[in-house]
Structures are given as structure tokens and as C-alpha cells.
Amino acid sequence: SQCIYEFGPKKTDGDSSQKDLLGGKGANLAEMAKLGLPVPPGFTISTECCNDYFELGGNLPDILDAQIFAAMANVESQMGMGFGDFENPLLVSCRSGARSSMPGMMETILNVGLCSTTIPGLIKKTGNEWFVYDAYRRLIMMYSDVVMEKAEELKPKDGMGIRLSLEMMMNNLKNDKGYANDTDISIEDMKNLCERFKKKISEDLGLDFPDDPREQLMGSIGAVFKSWNGRRAVAYRRIEHIPNSWGTAVNVQSMVFGNMGDTSATGVAFTRDPATGQNSFYGEWLVNAQGEDVVAGIRTPNPLNLDTKNSQNGHLSSLEEMMPELYTQLFDIRNLLEDHYQDMQDIEFTIQEGRLYMLQCRIGKRTATAALNMAMDMLDEGRIDEKTMLCRLEPKILDDLLHPIVDPEAEKHAAVVAEGLPAGPGGAYGQIVFTSEDAVRWAKADKKVILVREETNPEDIEGMRAAIAVLTARGGMTSHAALVARGWGKCCIVGAGVLKINLETKELRVGTRVFKEGDLFTLNGTKGTVYEGQLKMKDATENPKFKRFMEIADSHRTLRVRANADTPEDAKIAREFGAEGVGLFRTEHMFYGTDSDRPLFLLRKMILSKTVAERKEALAELFPFVKEEIGKTLAIMDGMPVTMRLLDPPLHEFVPQLVENQQEIADALRIDLEEVIKRSEQLKESNPMMGHRGVRLGITYPEIIEMQVLSIFEAAAELIQAGKTPQPEIMVPVTCNEKELDFARKIVDRCYEQTLEKYGLESIGYMYGTMIEIPRAALIAEKMAEHAQFFSFGTNDLTQMTFGFSRDDVGALMNDYLDNGILVADPFETLDQEAVGSLITTAVDGGRRARPDIKLGICGEHGGDPASVEFCHRAGLTYVSCSPYRVPIARLAAAQAAI
Ligand code: ADP
Ligand code: MG
Ligand code: MG
């Protein structure tokens, strides 16, 4: 099959639809070239070749050589230059590019093709010796690190990475000679540095830096492929659930140079503001610079235009002011790209001696706020329709919109430590730590940490993930830290220049003030302000745009969304988030509380009762309390269904441990302490998850069911009398046999008649149903549905019993399963559609056969997981139920499933 796809002004093979094959970068380079934009010509080696490379044990397929040099010949003829030519040498970059962007995770090598024979020619042609040696020293630095050390696995003698060694040599030179910037280094010193670099490489790695363009090219291509399996890339893929099998493409592209002097520059831009979503062109650039300089935070980048000047860079000139014509050209390209993609683009450009080149475009990462604002604006601009608009937000991102912000009142009086760029919005407080490892370690110990770094690099990825927020001293809005934090919706401030970090003493100095590891900071990532101490947080206020967005989502979905709420307070939040009922009200949760609480005490008394008389007495005391909580919840959810699950308490969790609590129970039951201890012992089970729980308790102690059902009916009756419309649904848990349902039904019927009589009512609207959480129940669903008017899939238990994984202990092995690719995702987080899903569809079919109008819902944690919601939509369920805060996520996921 075809391995190589060319792109450029003359001939372009691919387009943006071929991301799987060409990677995102290659596909979009092709698309831009097709649009007639100034893209330096080159070619893409497909992701399939990457897989071949690994199958061949880290070797390029033989046939590739000839194809590469045939494609190279076309590039050479378009450029009027020759790769390796002495007089007019062509240089290229080798750029990685996977299907979905993995910022900074893989490698790119620039200036490939510079060597002792091509250097003089390039100097002669450009008349710019400094530039040539600057390009050469960059090639040496990148190549020795990426190709020689990482890909060819040469081990530096002194144990320090070669890149770091070379960087130190360059820093020492700058310090010794008093050069403030790289651009100040003299030609002689730059030349010398290159020679010393090569010597150091030979000494340290035991191999000479290659002086042959072809060798450099093939080495670079292999190294880019190999970087797909680099440590950082693998870690990133795991977090982002990107399959290992995708592979990366390699883009070989003619170099254009932003480091040829004052009429040259390089920059990065977003077609709209990625932090706020505002419809203004946003970007950063540096004069006389190359490639990563802007992103790496080596110098503070200049603002792109007058719009993007701010407190950090206001003293620097914008491209709009310095090179107005080129700015206009870039601005036109910005508009063209937005019109073409109808979405915000993240672009890279380079200006070589007054000529503009486009080097990359892709869908830009954005904050949740920006995503919402842009999607709604583009809908209103008539660029996209409602369906496209709804698909612009990943459901999970809604979490960030509901995230807390720093309370503006508290901010007024707070002590400001530093100001930086607002790279990731929202607020956060935490203890400061200075390394990625510390962040991970502290977070594991349940501490909230803010990772403070000079600048972040891809090695910090795990620490950034673990931290609640990220703060850096250097870098701009497009720096690595900013990009990654935004992608994750994490609060982040970059470029807070006053911070002086000392890694050895783990201290942070700001002027004369010293902060130590563990000190508390609060970050306002929306403004870019760092405060000392812990400030009060506030829920993000109701945003009218968000409301309208959710209304549009609701108008597209068919699946209903309910919430799991265990208290009247939860029910209230759920309603505010748009829940259309309660899918799971766990009655035992009203007993969770402190040891001194009366209800908990009564529950314990009931659990430890031995005789029916003892138990009835305890239940009679519990009754008014249970009835009141149920009544309050039904009232809050008036007019909406509320599924009340009958008691399913893990008995052992409720047994008192403290002697004084045991004594209290003993007194209440009029027995002695030893007896209480003995009864507690008897309640211990070796397999409590499969123990005496759910309906099984009710079979042994029918009076428990009776008390609960009476509470439900009486609470409903009183609400009806008050003119309300309660809709209770009685749900029997942990069933595996239709006769259990029949057994409980008889009690329900009796309580119903009794309540009607007591309140003089004709009827009380209610439903009777069961959870399906044991595989056996799913398999005999048809029989279960003869008794049950509804099913609610308890997918937590159903997953536990289907896999035979103990929910409480599986953490110990889950990572090994994920690392070894035995499972793709944790089945407790995202529904296992293959087996658990098949039990669900079996039960749906069986249930419908017995009762065509059966109501079907799901109430496990999966109800708030977008992929699982999509499955529920396909399986034809009536509703999903999830925790109150996930209701908006489920609503959007349900809309996307219907689109
Ligand atoms: P990443 O995926 O990490 O962004 P890129 O492949 O985009 O890596 O390259 C890194 C930097 O080098 C970018 O700033 C890019 O614009 C620049 N660059 C890559 N190829 C070329 C080229 N042919 N000419 C000039 N600059 C280039
Ligand atoms: Mg990079
Ligand atoms: Mg890039």
C-alpha cells in the first residue's frame, strides 16, 4: 500500500479526512496546501509505516528508502534546491504527528541536512553565517538527544542526559560572556560551541554526530517513529485512553527559517481566544527565532496584535505594529481557516525574510468556558447547526463549567504573591510543591497540591495531572503548561516572572519573601493572580449561555435523566441541575451520621434485635423518622418519579464498635454488653457483598419491608391530601428469583390497603419494580417482569457479579489489567458493553416480552459516563440515573447519543 503522501503548492495527495493514516498534522498540512496556503512542500510517511517499524523490531521497511528519496526529489525540484547539495542545500524537518494531538509528547527534529559539506553553501547563499550556525547547533542538540540517546539508546557516560549537558555548556558560555539572549551569541562563539558540542557527543555517547544528510534523515525518521513508544507518550496515552495501535506519522518538510534576522520570526496563534472563547485573533510570536522558542518559554513572546497585549507583554511590540502587511495576510488566513473548518484553529507560522509560511493548523484546545462560548457564538453566526454545536462540547467538560471560582469578595482582601498569565481558568487552592514526583506523591496522600515549576516540560505530565493547579514562572499562553492544563480543564497560571524557585532547598522567593514546600496558595486562573493562603471558593454562577445550551441539548434527546439522591438536599441539587426524577433513593443513607445521632442508634438497635418483638419495637421508633425523610424528598420532587430502594444496608458497617455505643444498645434492648458483642459477631460475614442483604433481609425479617413501605405510602398519602402529586416507585434490591418479588409484593399490597383505609383515599399512584444487579435476574428477566413494573439496572453490582471482581478490592489489580491491555477501561467506570451490556440487552428483551410498557433505567455510577449513556440510549432504556453533579453531563451525552 501507499506509504508516502506528498503535500505542497504543486502536488498534494492527502486531505484533512485522512487523520488516521496521515496523523492530524500531516492531514491538515495537506488540507492547507490544497486551500492554496503557503505551506513549505514535503511529504508524510503514514501511521501504517509506524506499525511496520515496530513489527520489524525497530527497522524501516526496505522498500521505504526508495520511496522516500523519490518523494524527496519532488520536493527538491519544487524548492529548486538539493538535499545534501553543496551549493544550494535543502534542509528539512522530521515532525511527528499522531491522529489526535499529543502536545509535546513526541519528537520533532529541525534543520536536518546540515553538515560540513552543506554548511559553506548555505552560508554563501544566505550570507548569514550566524543563522547557519544557530541552525546547526539546534540540529546537534535535538539530534543527539532524540536520535542518538533516546532512539539508538546510547547511554551518556556521565549519567546526565546529553541534552542537559549541551544546554549547560551553552548556558555557561552565555554566563561567561555576559550574553543575555541566545541571539546575542557571537558568530565565533556559536561556531566554537558547535565544535565543542560534537566533541562532547563523541566522548559521552561513544559515537560521532553524523556528518551525512541521508544518515541524519533516516535516523530522524526512525527516531520519530520510536518516540511513539517513549515513556512520556505512553503515559499520556494511558491518561487520555488513546490506543497504542494508532501509531504516529512522520512529516518530512522543507525548512523555512524564522531565525534569519530581524525580518524573520516564528509564532503560534488561535483563531479565537482559547481561554475565553472571545471572537478575536489571539497569538504570540518572537522575532529572529525558530520552532519551539515560543512554546518553550525561552523569551517572553510578543503579542500578536493590539487585542492580545496584556499586563505581561504590554511593553513588547505586536506583529500588527511591526509587520502590518504580514499581519494582514495572516489575519486573512485566519478568516479563511475559520470559514473552512468552521471551528477554532490553533496555527503555527514562520516568517522568513518577510515571507509568511504556514506550518500547522489543528482544532485548538480550549477551556470549557471557551468551548461553550465559541459553540454558541458559531451557532448564532450561522456557521454550524444545533447538532454540530452540541457535539462541540465533550460532555465531561461540563464538569469544568460547574467548577468553583475564587470568591471575589475574599480576593479583595487577599495578599497577592504574583501575577501571571491566565492560562487555565477557575480557582483552586492547595499546598505548593516543586517537582512532578512530589506532586504525585502528595496527591496520593490525599493532599491538594499546586505544582510550581520554572516552566513545565512533557516530563511533568504526571505531576500536572495529580496537581489541583499548575503555576509556572516562565512561558506564554501557548506554552506546554498552558496547553496541557487547558486540555484538562485545570486551573493554571504561567509566566509569573517574579517567582524565583530553588529546587535544592525547595523554596520559592518573591522579592524578599520566602515560601516553603507545603505552604498554601490560592490561584485565580481566570485572572492570573496568585494569592497567599487559602481563599474561599464559590460555585460558578448560573450562566445564561449554559442554560440555553442545555435547553438545546434537552430538545434533542429522548433518554430521560434522573439523579441518584439519598437525602432531600441531594434531591434539591439534582432538580437544579435538571434531573427529571430520582432514579435511586438509598433509604439506608439517611442513617449515616455520627454515633450520637438518634436514627443511627435506632437502626443499630433494630439490626441487633433478636426477637420479632424487639425488632418491631425498634422499627416502630424508626418509622416516623423514615417517613419524614421520604416525605421531604417526594415533596421536593413533586410531580416527578422517585425510586425508593428498600433497605440494603451492609449490616457489619452499622454495628457499633465503641464500648459506650454497645452499652447504649444493650441498655435499650435490656440485654447485657456480652450479648450485644455476641450478636455483633454473629452478623459478621466472610462475603458481605454476597451476604444477607437486600431483599434477603426482608425475607428473613418481613417487618423491615413493612415499616419502609408503610413510610412510603403514608408520606405519599399526606402529600396527596396536601394537594401534591407524589410519584413513588418502590424498588426491591438484590433479587435473583421472581418468587422474592412475589413475596415482597404481598407485603406491599397489604400496606397499600391499610394506608388507603387510614387516609380515606381511593388510590395512591405508585409503581413496584426491582433492581437487576445479579446476572441470574437478568437472564430470567421475563419472569421477573411478570411481577415488576420496572427494572433498574444496578450496574455497579451487576459488573461486580459478572466479572467476579470485588468492587472494594479490585483497585489492587486494576492497574495491572490496564497496563497489560487485558482490559481497555475500568469496567466500574465505563460499562463493559460486551458482557454486562449483553446481560442488560437480554433483560431488556425479556422484560419487554412480559410487559411491553416496562420502564427501564440504570442507576449505577455508569449513568454519568458518556460512553455508557450512549449505550443506554441504543439499548432503548427509558432513563439513566447518576449523581446530581453529573446530571448535565448525562443530559448532553444523551443528546449526542440521539444525534
Ligand atoms: P509539535 O508537534 O511538538 O508542535 P512540530 O512538528 O509542530 O512539533 O514542530 C516543532 C516546532 O518546529 C514548531 O514550532 C514548528 O512550527 C517548527 N517547525 C517544524 N517544521 C518546520 C519547518 N519545516 N520549518 C520551520 N519550522 C518548522
Ligand atoms: Mg514539540
Ligand atoms: Mg506543532
In short:
This protein is α/β, with parallel strands linked by helices. It contains 36 helices and 33 strands.
Q: Overview of this structure, please?
A:
By secondary structure, this protein is an alpha/beta fold. The chain has five domains: 155 residues, ATP-grasp fold, A domain (Dna Ligase, domain 1), CATH 3.30.1490; 69 residues, Up-down Bundle (Acyl-CoA Binding Protein), CATH 1.20.80; 95 residues, ATP-grasp fold, B domain (D-amino Acid Aminotransferase, Chain A, domain 1), CATH 3.30.470.20; 137 residues, Glucose Oxidase, domain 1, CATH 3.50.30; 342 residues, TIM Barrel, CATH 3.20.20.60. Helix content is 46%, strand content 17%. The protein contains 36 helices and 33 strands. The strands form seven sheets. The protein has an eight-stranded mixed β-sheet. Helix 4 packs antiparallel against helix 5, helix 6 runs antiparallel to helix 7 and helix 23 packs parallel to helix 28. The protein binds adenosine-5'-diphosphate and magnesium ion (MG) (2 copies).
